[in-house]
Amino acid sequence: MFEQEYVKFLMRQRAGASGQRLERLNKDLVGEKKLLEVVVWPIMKSFDGWTMEHEVMSSSGVKIYIDTFFDPLGFGLESEGFVVHAESITRDRFSFEKMRVRTMAIYGYRYIPFSRDELDKQPDACRRSFYELLGRYSSRAGSKAVEELSVFEREVIRYGLRLNRNLRLEDVKYVLKSGYRRSSNVINELIKKNLIKPIGSGNQRFHEYELLPLASEYML
Questions:
Q1: Among 17, 84, 46, which residue's Cα sits nearest to residue 183?
Q2: What is residue 37's predicted lDDT score, i.e. its pLDDT?
Q3: Which uninterrupted H or E stretch holds 208?
Q4: pLDDT tens column, 50-107
Q5: pLDDT attached to residue 25
Q6: CA 202 to CA 172: how far, in whole Å?
Q7: Whole-model pTM?
Q8: What is the pLDDT of residues 197-206, one digit of tens each?
Q9: Could you count the other beta carbons within 10 Å of the beta carbon of residue 162?
């Protein structure tokens, strides 16, 4: 199952990439694939919201790339080999690595590195760490949301509460970085849980949704 979904995910990533990012996506992605296979897939069973070789611009104008990035929570996961990142690192490379971490902090991202040895020898520990991070940051707002809502549902509610208007399907697609099907499924789940309601009636196709008072209580 992972192999099939990974191939489709990688094809989508390449189709939406250009320039240096596309070059990186066409190279050997053993570390990035290992990270997704060992840490991400067993917990989330989906690549919705994820980006490979996520590109950001540093304050000095240098492009940096994050191995795998989860947009809803700003998680930047890295798979780091000992030789490249420690044993044979040059002074320039060492300084570049520090700049990368600072750049992530400027963007408000959370830098979450895993060593290749950890991924190979301690996969369960890696998954536990990631699971704990998901629980901590996906709802700093309280245990009720953690227990009863998925990470995708929580992020849609949090985003919707910041809007000064009704929630739209395009908003959900944006915050989840996913397509129509996944976004519609999340919307339907939120409707079932009485957290949002569609605007309109009859047989018309709904385009906007109102957050109900219960949604705010989940974020208290």
A1: 46
A2: 95
A3: strand 208-211
A4: 999 999 988 888 898 999 999 888 899 999 875 454 556 777 778 878 888 888 888 8
A5: 96
A6: 23
A7: 0.63
A8: 998 765 556 7
A9: 7
DSSP state of 207: -
3-state DSSP: the chain helix, strand, coil percent, rounded to 5? 55, 15, 25
The DSSP letter of residue 55 is E
Burial of 166 (C-beta count, 10 Å sphere; 0-12/13-18/19+): middle
SS3 188: helix
Which of 17, 68, 27 minimizes the C-alpha distance to 44?
A: 68
Tokens 């109900």: give the residue: 212
Residue that is written with structure tokens 């798979």 in the block: 79
Cα 33 to chain centroid distance, Å, stands at: 15
**What residues have CB less than 8 Å from 137, skipping those under 6 apart?**
73, 75, 110
Which residue has tokens 């044979």?
Answer: 88
